Amino acid sequence: MEGIYAFCVGLLTACGIFLTLRGRSFSVVIGLTLLSYAVNLFLFASGRLKLNSAVVLGQSEQYSDPLPQALVLTAIVIGFAMTAFAVILAMRARADLGNDHVDGNLPAQPNEASNRSGGNQ
Amino acid sequence: MSSLIWLPFLPLLGTLIPLLTARFSRTTCAFMTAALPALTLFLILSNAGDIFQGERFQAAIPWIPAIGLELAFRLDGLALLFSILILGIGLLVILYARYYLSAQDSIGKFYAYLILFMFAMLGVVLSDNLIQLWFFWELTSISSFLLISFWGHKADARKGARMALTITGAGGLALLAGLLILGNTVGSFSLQDILDSGPFIKDSANYPVIVVLILLGAFTKSAQFPFHFWLPNAMAAPTPVSAYLHSATMVKAGIFLMARFYPALADTDLWFLIVTLTGLATFLMGAYIALFQHDLKGLLANSTISHLGLITLLLGMGTDLAAVAAVFHIINHAIFKASLFMAAGIIDHESGSRDMRQLNGLWKYMPYTATLAMVASASMAGVPLMNGFLSKEMFFTETLHQASLGSLSWLIPVLATLGGIFAVAYSMRFIHDVFFNGEPINLPKTPHEPPRYMRVPVEILVALCLLVGIFPGFMVGDLLFAAASATLNTQAPSYSLAIWHGFNFPLLMSVIAIIGGLVMYQNRSHLFKFQAQFPKSDPKLVFEGVIQSIASKAGRIIAFTENSSLQRYIFFTLGLAAVMTASSLLKLNATAGQRPEIPVDALSITGAVLLSISALATVLWHRRRVVALITLSVVGLIVSLAFAQFSAPDLALTQLSVEVVTVILLILALFFLPQKTPKESSPRRVVRDLSLASLIGGVIGTICYALMTRPLDTISTFFTENSKTGGGGTNVVNVILVDFRGFDTLGEITVLGIAALGIYKLISRMRLFMPSTDGNGLAWSEDRHPILLAVISQSLLPLALLVSAYIFLRGHNMPGGGFIAGLITSVAIIQQYVAHGVDWIKTRIKLDYQIMIGSGISIATLSGLGSWAFGHTFLSSWFDYFYLPLIGKFELASAMIFDLGVFLTVVGATMLILANLGQLTTSERPIQKEHD
Amino acid sequence: MPLYLEIIICISLLIGAVFLLIGSYGLIRLPDIYMRLHSPTKASTLGITGVLVASMIFQSHLKGSFSVQELLITLFLLITAPVAANMIAKTALHYRKKPLERTQNQELMETIRDREEPQKPSES
Amino acid sequence: MLFPMPFHSLLLFTVWLLLNNSISAGHIVLAVFFAITIPWLVSGMRDEHPKILKPWLAIRYVLMVMKDILTANVEVALLIIGPIKKLNPGFVAVPINIDSDLGITLLASTVSLTPGTVSAEVSKDKSWLYVHALHLDNEEELILSIKQRYEMPIKEIFGC
Amino acid sequence: MLNITIIIVAAFICIALILNLWRLLKGPTTSDRILALDTMYINAIALILLYGIHASSVLYFEAALLIAMLGFVSTAALCKYLLRGDIIE
Amino acid sequence: MQHLSIFPILIPLLFGAIMLLPPFSKDIASQRVCSVVGTLFLLVSSAVLLFEINISGVQVYALGGWQAPFGISLIADKVSSLLVLLTSFLAFSVILYAIGGKDKGGAYFHPLFMFQIMGINGAFLTGDIFNLFVFFEVLLIASYALLIHAGGKQKTQATLHYVILNLVGSSLFLFGLGILYGTLGTLNMADMAIKVGQLEGETATLAKTGALLLLVVFGLKAAMLPMHFWLPKTYASASAPVAALFAIMTKVGIYSIFRVYTVIFGENAGELANIATPWLWPLALLTIAIGSIGVLASPSLKVLSANLVIVSSGSLLACAAINSEAATSAALYYMVHSTLASAGLFLLADMMARQRGKAEDRFVHSRPFVQPRLLGFAFAISALALVGMPPLSGFVGKVMILQATQSSLQTMWVWPLILLGSLAALITFSRAGTTLFWRHNGSVAAEAEPAKKTEIMSVALLLLASPILVLFGGDITEFTQEAASYLHDIQSSAYALLPGVTP
Ligand code: NA
Ligand code: NA
């Protein structure tokens, strides 16, 4: 199980980082969200995985480590606050700078042809 | 002499006087300004007798021992000599400047700078501590900068001052390094210790470094080749400044430094080689260039360089007598050069020009001044009966005794004579070209004699030229001896100060110099023609050019590195992290540890597959934003399920609710952002990013696995053991949050509150582009508030609030708590916003979310403060069980108040963000009439 | 746990699972978005009810008291599922998603999309 | 007024006890507390809705719908796994005659939950309910059954 | 018996979830994806409740309840976005 | 006064929260009073705290009454209380400036300012590494919000970069924390310091990766190369009081490096002893170099100030790399000096920019100043302090750093860089000063805004600190020396803080 778990954490990290390295603010925000999932799972795992051992006294026979859980809770909330700020800041940047590139200006596009319509509907 | 500690500070006090007295008459100002330096001079002179007897005054009090700095002064012969020059000539300059400066110039500011500089110089020469010496050394650089740039509105003054500051400042840094190494080598920063450790220093491995660094300081300050070029450009300063800085003080500081460290550093081959060669080169070059200057002050400036070279050369020779000669020339040069500068200033002041091509035949207009100038330049030329002659004779004598250059040693006296020839020639030019040589050409003013008292300083100095020249022993004998002894740190050797030593070789050299000089001046036109062939380069422009090219190169480097590309910045940051972690991970032999693993089941595999595929899908489709959002939601859902599976119900709940709020937020944002992302990353960039991402992902995954498969001893048993008894709750995670680590939670809700405030700030001035169609040009639906959604949302609200209350109340003992409850409430309210719109809500509820945040944080904090009343630390919890008839046993805990604060902050923050974000559009967007 | 309880639990679990699976299967199988809408709205709702009943019985047994919390989940789902379906249908209509070829009264779709009254009211 | 929304208060009271699986005195007190405070809190956030005039009819209606949900679900499940070729989907416009939004919503929801139909839209003038049927045999029959089986009772319950 | 049933049921739900994901990835329309996500929420509820039975634990109910409540909100918001762009107007 | 050590956190927190509530929430005048009173309280209590610590030694404040290592403890020792006092003094001075009118142009300036102070003080005081993360986030989010204060395109753009980079940083921080908890099983820094010494083999290797991740995070905050890129634009675009307050932000990163890599991964960390040093060395030196190049390239006073911050970060990192008591002492002194001096320069730059019309603070010729003498004097003071020339505090700090090098190899690298850095600053400042004050055309600009009394007072306070640091340099360096030796002594910085634990 640990192997699968670790694989997922690594994959999420990789996905998050790849998106964070993109040029558009929305992709970056999505990347950061993925990264924060990875972070939370990682931090959680630092207390080791246990099944059927929720740390509610009297409800389980053995207990998992409650401390990382508390830490992850804090991290989730803080991550939410930060993501929210980043999202709105991205909007503000679009409003102020006219585009949604993280650098505030669009890179020179050699050919617009690559901008194919994705057609999501 | 107990006053020695505060003596140098007397002039410093004086810097305020001119600023305060400037509003009175200029004369008053000048006299008041002069008072303290005069007093200082008097106090110092009153001790001269003792010093002539060979005594040395020292005083020190500790200051900053950590850097070896103490407030330490010494008054010995050398210091006495320099103090007299600094203060004496300083006083004359004060008098002179009173007349020189025009009414527009702020005389108060000028005097203030001058006194500051005087203080700094005095500090340098009186210092008995290396660091303190450097301290004052730098002060001279700074205050001379102020003086040189006194006419800062002129470009020349600015550039000249900058150049002087840059060169001397750079030298100062080298000096600091040298002094620090010197002090560390000896183990003391006390000057006396250094002077007493000469042999030790010269034997030490650090000696070459020390010598080079200290000499760099000295050479830059004393305008030695190749650092000489700043000095002529410092002539942009008012002439009193030049008279002061370039005769007795600033440039002499470098000489002083060499003299001061003479016992510690001199008399080695290295010293000889560097110092004599530099001195010789400077001596010749200065003299040569001086001849070709058309600017009166330019001539004097280059002559100064030359004379400084001469003194340096003497100090480099390493014989005691050479040192004596050097000290003597220091005195003489100060006297005649100060008077010459002042004379040049008078000429400039009264004729409006310093250009020797315009200045001709001034004898007729200012014979008195001319006479003074002629005496002084005679001294500069080394004409007998003048003081300059005496020290030059000693110099020539010493050059003859040099053997250090081996078979080439004869070069030194020859070159010295050559320098002498040039000196005579430029002195001649100074006299003849200005006072005779026809009629003035196009002078702005008709020249005339200066005011009476403007001449006084010149008269005094010229008188000194003669007096010292004729009665050297009487005038400066004791002083010279004391200063020379102090320089040598031992009794000076015997020498004769007689005017006449009989016909000897040095005399011959003098004669050759004088005759040669006259001949050379006579035939100057050939020389000028020869010189005119060389391209002229203005060192100022060259220097500015160099500085500017350095700045622009720096600019290019910065523009290249800080290219404003966030992608690059992130890449570097993550790259460093990857390199650091990966490199240390290489040492991990086995990834898996000893801890038994949980067996894999199909459910988990399904979860992993769902998670992986949706994460990958998010990446693949990140340019189709809505789709990415949906796949992201799946990832969030699976993560929550994972938390639930691995025994963290609280985490699952929190993750779920945060997830929903985040998605709503992202959807809100999506409306204002482009619907799709263009494909703009080059394949190379994609490969690069993919590699980095996989590397870090791999590293993190590996570490995660390695951690999970190793046993761990944690502090957590304490929490499970004390949760119920100490924290009053059975949900240990919640008890950690509100009690054991409640401080974290307080910080966390503060973060949330601040984020909301910040977002409010972001929103409040946002001007948004609102698309009227979707990404493909399809107009939006006209149904603003679908009826089913509206009605159902209304019915859900009370239920949601009830659930929220349920989650809140049970949090302490079962999964739940204030945070999750807060999010549920927020989501329920947001749901109303989605279903009904802002306008509808606005008329119906009047919640001030900002107040909610404020009171939430306040309540949480105050609940923690309550414990102070009982003498406990902040956030100490309190709980008890109560029994009420009918209701039964129930628990009350301070943690619940804390949790209430959390709840309020969460609701306030989320709503402040979302409601305001929603509100953004309502005012501008045309409201369609609802059909009813 | 008494056998009869176990049997009941197992049966309701299985029923639930089957319907859940059918619901999700329909999502794959049905040819257009309008038809697919039916499958989770109905089958999955029933499926989840099965699981909820099982859970309810099981938890009641576990706690030793009557546990009906799960009814609340059912309540929520019953309330929200039609709205979700309605909203999704609206989006599909809004984007003029073509239904299956043989869908009857296709001409109504544009009317529905614009929330107008039907041009020629059905022959009622 | 202590109970601005008596139905909701009752619901909240019940749900609280349901959530806590308890009818202890403490929970009853809390349940009453929430039954009073929550409606009071949200009362501002509501449009006026018609009152339930015939509660018994309402209960009967709920039970009937539940039964229909069961049967409908089985039917739909069979349709889903059966041959798709046999399915005849279609849109249907159902004329409705209910004044209140709540009533329309209830009707639409019921339609969605019961036999192979999903409420797709309500017309602007709220006099038509558009329905998508998974298998449309007989259009009139469907309209009639919706109107009789569901619309009628709803109108009666709310008296409109 | 219960254990075997749980395994079977879990397998069913897993398959259901995979099918949902399939639809979610395949689309073809965003509406389909939202529908798939919504269905996924329902299956997740079932899974959690099942897990509660399996673990004989009462701690999972809230998670199920929350998914039921919140899943709808995000479905509604996504649909509203597709319809109007602006979800809070 | 057993609660004294939490005052520096609680005072700004409460004042910040109260300013969100009526009657303060809608009225800037009362918020200003509130802020001044709050920061004054803070200043006084921090001073008293420092005084007490100096007399009676380190204070451990167990929050919630839960003893270390189980609960969160605040550690008020000489190091942290010095930096808290520094922050409080800075806060007080900056708020004086802000109430001159810079607090307008957006909501919530005062509460956010307070929260930012709370975050910084919390980061200095906490003895728990996760709590450190929390306070980092508090100060970061407040800084994000303050950065955009008064709006403008540049601000938005710079903030976006700053925010995203720091979000990445926070993720790395949590990864690092996860690793450290996963290997050490504790969060209290003193406890970690003790447990680290017992790690061996593969667990030690794992812990090392965590420690290095934290180094990246702290390095990002401290503007360590190659993570310094964000700083110049961010600082230069920030509104003046915010930029001035930011002068301490990099120091939080530096402080954390000292705390973590001296106490936890210091001499006594067994296999993990001094793990940061090999990385810190090159990066610190390169940071000084790139900062100095930036100094030379600076086109305006604000950018110059920002680049000077990078140079000072580099110098401080070099101290961390030297890793000795003398170096730590030098760093502490230098931190105080450079924070106040650069804050003063940021404020000054703003005062000057407001009087120069369109030229603002760029080094181009412009209209003359309304208050040339005042500004000139202040400029000279801050220039001297920042270049590191006598008689101001810069030279003391510089000499202390130079004196702290321990081997000739270190000397060979550190000395030239630091001295050349000073030269770069000297060149730039002399160019800047002569241009700003003497290259004029036209008359005073019509829109020129003379500096207000409170603003002058604020800058005066900040700049006055510099000569005072020299004048009382003996006592101050003695204090920093003691503080440094505390930090390097595992007995007092770890064992003594844990009840019942002995080496
Ligand atoms: Na002439
Ligand atoms: Na809106």
From TrEMBL, chain A:
<protein>
    <submittedName>
        <fullName>NADH-ubiquinone oxidoreductase subunit 4L</fullName>
    </submittedName>
</protein>
<keyword id="KW-1133">Transmembrane helix</keyword>
<keyword id="KW-1003">Cell membrane</keyword>
<comment type="similarity">
    <text>Belongs to the CPA3 antiporters (TC 2.A.63) subunit C family.</text>
</comment>
<dbReference type="GO" id="GO:0005886">
    <property type="term" value="C:plasma membrane"/>
</dbReference>
<feature type="compositionally biased region" description="Polar residues">
    <location>
        <begin position="111"/>
        <end position="121"/>
    </location>
</feature>
<keyword id="KW-0472">Membrane</keyword>
<dbReference type="InterPro" id="IPR039428">
    <property type="entry name" value="NUOK/Mnh_C1-like"/>
</dbReference>
<feature type="transmembrane region" description="Helical">
    <location>
        <begin position="26"/>
        <end position="47"/>
    </location>
</feature>
<keyword id="KW-0812">Transmembrane</keyword>
<feature type="region of interest" description="Disordered">
    <location>
        <begin position="102"/>
        <end position="121"/>
    </location>
</feature>
<dbReference type="InterPro" id="IPR050601">
    <property type="entry name" value="CPA3_antiporter_subunitC"/>
</dbReference>
TrEMBL record, chain B:
<feature type="transmembrane region" description="Helical">
    <location>
        <begin position="569"/>
        <end position="590"/>
    </location>
</feature>
<feature type="domain" description="NADH-Ubiquinone oxidoreductase (complex I) chain 5 N-terminal">
    <location>
        <begin position="63"/>
        <end position="111"/>
    </location>
</feature>
<keyword id="KW-1003">Cell membrane</keyword>
<feature type="domain" description="MrpA C-terminal/MbhE">
    <location>
        <begin position="685"/>
        <end position="768"/>
    </location>
</feature>
<protein>
    <submittedName>
        <fullName>Cation:proton antiporter</fullName>
    </submittedName>
</protein>
<feature type="transmembrane region" description="Helical">
    <location>
        <begin position="6"/>
        <end position="22"/>
    </location>
</feature>
<keyword id="KW-0813">Transport</keyword>
<dbReference type="GO" id="GO:0015297">
    <property type="term" value="F:antiporter activity"/>
</dbReference>
<feature type="transmembrane region" description="Helical">
    <location>
        <begin position="686"/>
        <end position="708"/>
    </location>
</feature>
<dbReference type="InterPro" id="IPR050616">
    <property type="entry name" value="CPA3_Na-H_Antiporter_A"/>
</dbReference>
<feature type="transmembrane region" description="Helical">
    <location>
        <begin position="815"/>
        <end position="835"/>
    </location>
</feature>
<feature type="transmembrane region" description="Helical">
    <location>
        <begin position="207"/>
        <end position="231"/>
    </location>
</feature>
UniProtKB/TrEMBL annotation, chain C:
<keyword id="KW-0472">Membrane</keyword>
<feature type="compositionally biased region" description="Basic and acidic residues">
    <location>
        <begin position="110"/>
        <end position="124"/>
    </location>
</feature>
<dbReference type="Pfam" id="PF03334">
    <property type="entry name" value="PhaG_MnhG_YufB"/>
</dbReference>
<dbReference type="GO" id="GO:0015385">
    <property type="term" value="F:sodium:proton antiporter activity"/>
</dbReference>
<feature type="transmembrane region" description="Helical">
    <location>
        <begin position="71"/>
        <end position="89"/>
    </location>
</feature>
<feature type="transmembrane region" description="Helical">
    <location>
        <begin position="6"/>
        <end position="28"/>
    </location>
</feature>
<keyword id="KW-1133">Transmembrane helix</keyword>
<feature type="region of interest" description="Disordered">
    <location>
        <begin position="104"/>
        <end position="124"/>
    </location>
</feature>
<keyword id="KW-0812">Transmembrane</keyword>
<dbReference type="InterPro" id="IPR005133">
    <property type="entry name" value="PhaG_MnhG_YufB"/>
</dbReference>
<protein>
    <submittedName>
        <fullName>Sodium:proton antiporter</fullName>
    </submittedName>
</protein>
From TrEMBL, chain E:
<keyword id="KW-0812">Transmembrane</keyword>
<keyword id="KW-0406">Ion transport</keyword>
<feature type="transmembrane region" description="Helical">
    <location>
        <begin position="34"/>
        <end position="53"/>
    </location>
</feature>
<keyword id="KW-0813">Transport</keyword>
<protein>
    <submittedName>
        <fullName>Cation:proton antiporter</fullName>
    </submittedName>
</protein>
<feature type="transmembrane region" description="Helical">
    <location>
        <begin position="59"/>
        <end position="83"/>
    </location>
</feature>
<feature type="transmembrane region" description="Helical">
    <location>
        <begin position="6"/>
        <end position="22"/>
    </location>
</feature>
<keyword id="KW-1003">Cell membrane</keyword>
<keyword id="KW-0050">Antiport</keyword>
<dbReference type="InterPro" id="IPR007208">
    <property type="entry name" value="MrpF/PhaF-like"/>
</dbReference>
<comment type="similarity">
    <text>Belongs to the CPA3 antiporters (TC 2.A.63) subunit F family.</text>
</comment>
<keyword id="KW-1133">Transmembrane helix</keyword>
